[in-house]
C-alpha cells in the first residue's frame, strides 16, 4: 500500500514544479532574475503585484476575462438545460444527427475560425465587446454542456416528470422548481467545464477584442514584447490567472470526476 | 422509453441557433475563400478546387501534417497509460482524495498562453529551474530554442504535464464506480492483479477512457497556443504543427485561399480520425 501512494505523490510534485517556479519568479525583482539562478527569491518583493493592481491596463485585463467567462457560462448553461432535457426525454426528427453535429463543433480547430470570426463579429457590430467573446466560446462550450447535462438528466427517472404533471405543475414551473434542483450537481459540473474552457481559451478571445474587452492574455503578450523582458511582471500576471480556476475547482471537487463519468460518447 | 415528441425541437432551438451562428456562417466564409483568389480590395476570382490540389500536393503541408500526427501519437501513447497507472494507484477514499484531485486538475485551469509562458520561464537555460538543472547540474547541453530534439521533448513534456490529469480524473471516475463486491469475488477466485485489471477495472473504465482518448485526440490535434508561445514553431520549422502553420499562412502571409482550403482539409481529417477512434472503441458494444 505504501509503495503505491508514491506514484500520485511524485506525479503531483511534477505538476507543482513549473507552477512553483512561476510563483517564485513573481516575487523576484527583474535584476535578481537576470543576475542568475536562485531557488528561492533572495530579495522578496511585491512590486510586480503592485504594478498589476495599480495599472488599469493590467487589472482591466482580468476584469474583462472574468466578465466574458461569466457571460459565457450563464448563456451556455441556460440554453443547454432545455436542450439536454429534450435529448434525454424525447425522440424527435433528427435528434441523433443533431447531437452528433453539436459534438463535431468541439472538434473544430480554433485556428480555423479565428479569421472568419473576426469578420463575422465585425459585421454584426459586436467586435471588441465582452458579448462577442462570450458568444464565440459557445461554439465549443454548448456542445460540452449539453453532453454533460444530458448524462445527468438520464439518471433522473421519468416518473418524476409524470408525477409532477399529474399534480398539476405547469412545465416551466416543474422544470425550474423541481427538475433543475434535482440535477444541481450536473449544473455545477457543466458550469465548471464551461468556465474552464472559456477561461483557458485565448486565441479567439484575443482575435475578437482590441481595447475595451481585451483579455488578460493580450496584455501579457504586449508586456512580453514591448517592455523588454519583464519576467517578474509576466510571472506575477500568470500566477494571478491561476487563482480563479483554483477557487472554482475547490467548489466542485467532489463532482468533477463524476461529471465526465456520467456523460455519454 | 423515450416518447416521440416533435415539439422537443423548441427546446433545442436556442442551442441550435447559437451554435449554427458560430459554426455555419464562419464555415461558409471559409468555404467561400477556399474556392476563390483575391488580390485585395475585396475583388475575388473563381479558383475552383486549385487551392485544395495545391495544399494536398505541397511538401510543407505534408511535413506539418506528419509532425502533427507524430505529436498526437506521442502524447496519446504517454498520457493514456500513465493516466491509467496514476488513477490505479490513487487512494479510493479518505481526506486526501479531494486534495489530490484539486491539485491534479490545476494545470488544466491555467490559460493556455500562461502555460506556454510558464514553461518558457521553467526551461530558460541559465535561469529556469529545469534549464538550470539540466545544463549546470546534469551537464546536459539543453536549449530548446536551438535544438529541435530538445524543443520536441519540451513540448511533449509540457503536454503530458498539462493534460495527463484529464485521463487520471476520468479513469478514476470509472474506478470508483466499481462495487467492492467485485474485488472480493476476484480475491476468492485468487485472481492476479493483472487479471483484476484486465477483467474488472479495464472494462469498467472503457466508457470514460473512450471519452478521454477522444478529447485528448481532438485537443492535441488542434493544439496551437502553448507550442506557439514556447517555440513559435521553431527552431526552424521543427515544431510547426498544423494549427501554427495554418495561422502563419492565414494571418502571417494573408494567403486566404490556401489557408481556407487547408482549414477544410484539416477539419475533415480531425472529423475522420475522431470517427475512426469512436467506431473502433465502441465496436464491441454494438455486437
UniProtKB/TrEMBL annotation, chain A:
Principal cellular location given in the protein's record: membrane
Similarity comment: family membership: Belongs to the binding-protein-dependent transport system permease family.
Keywords annotated in UniProt: Cell membrane, Membrane, Transmembrane, Transmembrane helix, Transport
This protein's name: Carbohydrate ABC transporter permease
Localization terms from the record: Cell membrane
Cellular-component GO terms for this entry: plasma membrane
CDD domains tied to this protein: TM_PBP2
Recorded topology in the membrane: Multi-pass membrane protein
Superkingdom of this protein's organism: Bacteria
Organism: Ruegeria sp. PrR005
UniProt keyword annotation of Transmembrane present: yes
ABC transmembrane type-1 domain boundaries: 62-252
GO biological process: transmembrane transport
Transmembrane segment boundaries: 7-27, 66-87, 99-118, 130-153, 174-200, 231-252
TrEMBL record, chain B:
PROSITE patterns from the UniProt entry: ABC_TM1
Keywords: Membrane, Transmembrane, Transmembrane helix, Transport
Every ABC transmembrane type-1 domain range: 65-277
Keyword Transmembrane helix: yes
Gene3D superfamilies: MetI-like (1.10.3720.10)
Spans traversing the lipid bilayer: 9-31, 69-88, 95-112, 118-137, 149-173, 260-281
Membrane-topology descriptor: Multi-pass membrane protein
Keyword Repressor recorded: no
InterPro entries, sorted: MetI-like, MetI-like_sf, Sugar_ABC_transporter
Subcellular locations according to the entry: Cell membrane
UniProt-listed Pfam families: BPD_transp_1
Coiled-coil stretches: none
PANTHER family: GLUCOSE IMPORT SYSTEM PERMEASE PROTEIN GLCT, TREHALOSE TRANSPORT SYSTEM PERMEASE PROTEIN SUGA
Family in the record: Belongs to the binding-protein-dependent transport system permease family.
Protein name per its UniProtKB record: Sugar ABC transporter permease
Species the sequence originates in: Ruegeria aquimaris
Amino acid at each position: 500500500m505504501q509503495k503505491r501512494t508514491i506514484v500520485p505523490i511524485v506525479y503531483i510534485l511534477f505538476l507543482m514544479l513549473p507552477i512553483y517556479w512561476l510563483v517564485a519568479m513573481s516575487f523576484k525583482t527583474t535584476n535578481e532574475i537576470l543576475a542568475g539562478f536562485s531557488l528561492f527569491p533572495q530579495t522578496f518583493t511585491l512590486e510586480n503585484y503592485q504594478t498589476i493592481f495599480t495599472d488599469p491596463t493590467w487589472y482591466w485585463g482580468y476584469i474583462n476575462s472574468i466578465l466574458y467567462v461569466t457571460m459565457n457560462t450563464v448563456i451556455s448553461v441556460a440554453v443547454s438545460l432545455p436542450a439536454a432535457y429534450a435529448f434525454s426525454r424525447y425522440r424527435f426528427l433528427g435528434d441523433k444527427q443533431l447531437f452528433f453535429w453539436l459534438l463535431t463543433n468541439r472538434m473544430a480547430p480554433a485556428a480555423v475560425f479565428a479569421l472568419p470570426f473576426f469578420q463575422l463579429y465585425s459585421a454584426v457590430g459586436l467586435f471588441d465587446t465582452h458579448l462577442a467573446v462570450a458568444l464565440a466560446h459557445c461554439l465549443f462550450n454548448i456542445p460540452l454542456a449539453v453532453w454533460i447535462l444530458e448524462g445527468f438528466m438520464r439518471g433522473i427517472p421519468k416518473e418524476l416528470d409524470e408525477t409532477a404533471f399529474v399534480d398539476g405543475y405547469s412545465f416551466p414551473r416543474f422544470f425550474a422548481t423541481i427538475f433543475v434542483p434535482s440535477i444541481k450537481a450536473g449544473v455545477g459540473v457543466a458550469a465548471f467545464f464551461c468556465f474552464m474552457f472559456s477561461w483557458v481559451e485565448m486565441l479567439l478571445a484575443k482575435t475578437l477584442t482590441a481595447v475595451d474587452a481585451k483579455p488578460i492574455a493580450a496584455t501579457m503578450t504586449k508586456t512580453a514584447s514591448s517592455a523588454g523582458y519583464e519576467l517578474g511582471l509576466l510571472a506575477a500576471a500568470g500566477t494571478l490567472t491561476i487563482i480563479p480556476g483554483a477557487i472554482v475547482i475547490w467548489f466542485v471537487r467532489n463532482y468533477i470526476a463524476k461529471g465526465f463519468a456520467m456523460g455519454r460518447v | 422509453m423515450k416518447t416521440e415528441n416533435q415539439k422537443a425541437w423548441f427546446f433545442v432551438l436556442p442551442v441550435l441557433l447559437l451554435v449554427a451562428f458560430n459554426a455555419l456562417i464562419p464555415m461558409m466564409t471559409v468555404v467561400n475563400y477556399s474556392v476563390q483568389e483575391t488580390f485585395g480590395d475585396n475583388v475575388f476570382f473563381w479558383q475552383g478546387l486549385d487551392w485544395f490540389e495545391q495544399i494536398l500536393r505541397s511538401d510543407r503541408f505534408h511535413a506539418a501534417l506528419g509532425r502533427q500526427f507524430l505529436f498526437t501519437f506521442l502524447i496519446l501513447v504517454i498520457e493514456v497509460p500513465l493516466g491509467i497507472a496514476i488513477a490505479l494507484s490513487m487512494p479510493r477514499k479518505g481526506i486526501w482524495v479531494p486534495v489530490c484531485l484539486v491539485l491534479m486538475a490545476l494545470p488544466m485551469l491555467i490559460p493556455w498562453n500562461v502555460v506556454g509562458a510558464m514553461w518558457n520561464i521553467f526551461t530558460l537555460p541559465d535561469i529556469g529551474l529545469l534549464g538550470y538543472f539540466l545544463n549546470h547540474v546534469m551537464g546536459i547541453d539543453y536549449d530548446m530554442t536551438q535544438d529541435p530534439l530538445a524543443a520536441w521533448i519540451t513540448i511533449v513534456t509540457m503536454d503530458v504535464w498539462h493534460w495527463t490529469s484529464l485521463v487520471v480524473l476520468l479513469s478514476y471516475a470509472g474506478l470508483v464506480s466499481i462495487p467492492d463486491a467485485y474485488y472480493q469475488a476476484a480475491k476468492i477466485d485468487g485472481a492476479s492483479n493483472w487479471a483484476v485489471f484486465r477483467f474488472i477495472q479495464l472494462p469498467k473504465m472503457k466508457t470514460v477512457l473512450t471519452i478521454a482518448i477522444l478529447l485528448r485526440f481532438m485537443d492535441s490535434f488542434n493544439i496551437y497556443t502553448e507550442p506557439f508561445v514556447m517555440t513559435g514553431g521553431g527552431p526552424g520549422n521543427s515544431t510547426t504543427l498544423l494549427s501554427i502553420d495554418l495561422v502563419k499562412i492565414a494571418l502571417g502571409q494573408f494567403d486566404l485561399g490556401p489557408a481556407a482550403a487547408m482549414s477544410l482539409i484539416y477539419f475533415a481529417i480531425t472529423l475522420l480520425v475522431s470517427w475512426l477512434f469512436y467506431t473502433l472503441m465502441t465496436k464491441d458494444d454494438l455486437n
